[in-house]
């Protein structure tokens, strides 16, 4: 999409797309304003003048979460889990994350011989296992949990045939029932896990977070953190492979952390976020009306030469300031500290344990999702573990 972004940034930085019925925003300054000025732009799709309920089960659940709520409701919901995802609390997870990644690597190296699919073996399962553990899902249910979360993400893409969609709905229902049971259990017997925090959360009016919203929060944490982190890890390996950086970065924790930021800029897993104008507003010389939908292209903002010198080059030690890979402002990614840690741990374990790493294929199929940037699978080669 990067050439298209470039063309749009220079030629029509804010433009109406009649096919989608929404405005596209391409420049860094405009994108940043649209995603963070929540007085003018709402995250709640229900505010769009052309909003129609898709009617899918679970739609309401997700629309009632922090991701699609404006302040003050947003702030109240986010506050429930803010502490658990703070850099301080997340940092304590590092040893356990290394152990989990080590186990995945052991399995992958034992069952493959010289080549493997990075996505299937490592980048996909890792974030699922981590969030399951953070939430407090019993480890014996993890395989089932992985299946469900896969179907949840596939459903979120919304491109499935009728039969597939039906199966997805069924497994979503199963997952919802499973979570409701766990939430019920944690209400009665709270433990030291995030499920308990969510299940027993008290709102400012003294009431307990309704069960449906507790469920929505669990679903959101799964959806928001899984394919995004999978693609961050995968996109990083692609960047490192294309720039011959595997050997140079092996064992260099800090350099890997810095490189991950550049990947978030250069190949952002989330390329766009949507908003709805709450009042008439002028942007880039165009008049946007109340109720109009906007698409803020984070991936384009991240390549804007007004913000970044040599924006179309991957510069591993650039340490980009102001990239919008995790958004900006009120809805800035809650999971950013966790995603950064997961990526650094996954990459540093992979690079230090495997010699002679290289990308094994150049013919890659993009992730089947409109706003997610990554590949479905990434074959890699290696000499020895
Ligand atoms: C919000 C990206 C990982 C949970 C966001 C937003 C972006 C983003 C761009 C802003 C949405 C908006 O402005 O409308 C990413 C990327 C990730 C990642 C690129 C991985 C590389 C995670 C993880 C979690 C998570 C691991 C949790 C386990 C959330 C939540 C929100 C959010 C709950 C909504 C925050 C709010 O509305 O206040 N993420 N995310 N994300 N992310 Fe992430």
Sum up the structure in keywords.
385 residues; alpha+beta; Cytochrome p450; five-stranded mixed beta sheet; three-stranded antiparallel beta sheet; 51% helix; globular; binds protoporphyrin IX containing FE
Number of domains: 1
CATH architecture: Orthogonal Bundle
Averaged pLDDT: 92
User: Count of DSSP helices?
Assistant: 16
Total strands: 10
For CATH, the homologous superfamily is named as Cytochrome P450
List the helices and strands and how they pair.
Blueprint: H1 2-11, E1 14-17, E2 22-25, H2 28-36, E3 41-42, H3 59-63, H4 73-82, H5 87-91, H6 94-111, E4 115-117, H7 118-123, H8 125-135, H9 142-157, H10 162-188, H11 194-199, H12 211-242, H13 246-249, H14 253-266, E5 272-277, E6 281-283, E7 286-288, E8 293-297, H15 298-301, H16 336-353, E9 358-359, E10 379-381
Parallel strand pairs: 2-8
Antiparallel strand pairs: 1-2, 3-5, 4-10, 5-8, 6-7, 9-10
Helix pairs in contact: 6-8, 6-16, 8-9, 8-12, 9-10, 9-12, 10-12, 12-14, 12-16, 14-16
Bound molecules: protoporphyrin IX containing FE.
Compact summary:
The protein is an alpha+beta fold and 385 residues long.
What can you tell me about this protein's structure?
By secondary structure, the protein is an alpha+beta fold. The chain has one domain: Cytochrome p450, CATH 1.10.630.10. It has helices at 2-11, 28-36, 59-63, 73-82, 87-91, 94-111, 118-123, 125-135, 142-157, 162-188, 194-199, 211-242, 246-249, 253-266, 298-301, 336-353; strands at residues 14-17, 22-25, 41-42, 115-117, 272-277, 281-283, 286-288, 293-297, 358-359, 379-381. It is globular. It binds protoporphyrin IX containing FE. Protoporphyrin IX containing FE is lined by residues 35, 43, 66-67, 78, 131, 220-221, 224-225, 228-229, 232, 269-270, 273, 325-327, 331, 333-335, 338-339. Protoporphyrin IX containing FE binds next to helix 12 and helix 16.
């Amino acid at each position: 999409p990067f050439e298209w972004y470039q063309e749009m940034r220079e030629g029509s930085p804010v433009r109406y797309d009649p096919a989608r019925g929404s405005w596209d925003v391409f420049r860094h300054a405009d994108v940043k304003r649209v995603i963070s000025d929540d007085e003018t732009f709402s995250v709640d799709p229900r505010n769009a003048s052309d909003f129609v309920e898709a009617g899918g089960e679970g739609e309401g659940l997700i629309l009632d979460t922090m991701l699609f709520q404006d302040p003050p409701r947003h702030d109240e919901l986010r506050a429930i889990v803010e502490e658990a995802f703070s850099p301080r609390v997340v940092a304590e997870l590092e040893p356990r994350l290394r152990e989990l990644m080590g186990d995945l690597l052991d399995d992958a190296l034992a069952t493959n011989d010289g080549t493997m699919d990075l996505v299937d073996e490592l980048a996909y399962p890792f974030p699922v296992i981590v969030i399951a553990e953070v939430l407090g899902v019993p480890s014996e249910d993890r395989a089932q949990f992985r299946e469900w979360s896969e179907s949840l993400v596939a459903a979120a893409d919304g491109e499935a045939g009728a039969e597939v969609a039906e199966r997805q709905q069924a497994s979503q229902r199963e997952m919802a029932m499973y979570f409701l049971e766990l939430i019920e259990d944690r209400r009665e017997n709270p433990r030291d896990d995030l499920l308990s925090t969510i299940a027993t959360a008290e709102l400012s009016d003294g009431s307990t977070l309704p069960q449906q919203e507790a469920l929505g929060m669990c679903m959101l944490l799964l959806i928001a953190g899984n394919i995004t982190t999978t693609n961050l890890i995968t996109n990083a390996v692609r960047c490192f492979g294309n720039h011959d950086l595997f050997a140079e970065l092996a064992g260099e924790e800090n350099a890997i952390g810095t490189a991950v930021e550049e990947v978030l800029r250069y190949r952002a897993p989330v390329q766009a976020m949507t908003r709805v104008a709450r009042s008439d507003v002028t942007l880039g010389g165009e008049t946007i009306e109340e109720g109009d939908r906007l698409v803020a292209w984070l991936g384009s903002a991240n390549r804007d030469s007004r913000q970044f010198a040599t924006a179309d080059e991957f510069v591993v030690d650039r340490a980009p300031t102001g990239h919008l890979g995790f958004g900006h402002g009120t809805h800035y990614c809650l999971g950013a500290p966790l995603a950064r840690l997961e990526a650094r741990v996954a990459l540093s374990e992979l690079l230090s344990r495997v010699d002679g790493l290289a990308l094994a294929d150049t013919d890659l199929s993009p992730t089947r999702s409109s706003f997610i940037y990554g590949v479905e699978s990434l074959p890699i080669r290696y000499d020895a573990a």
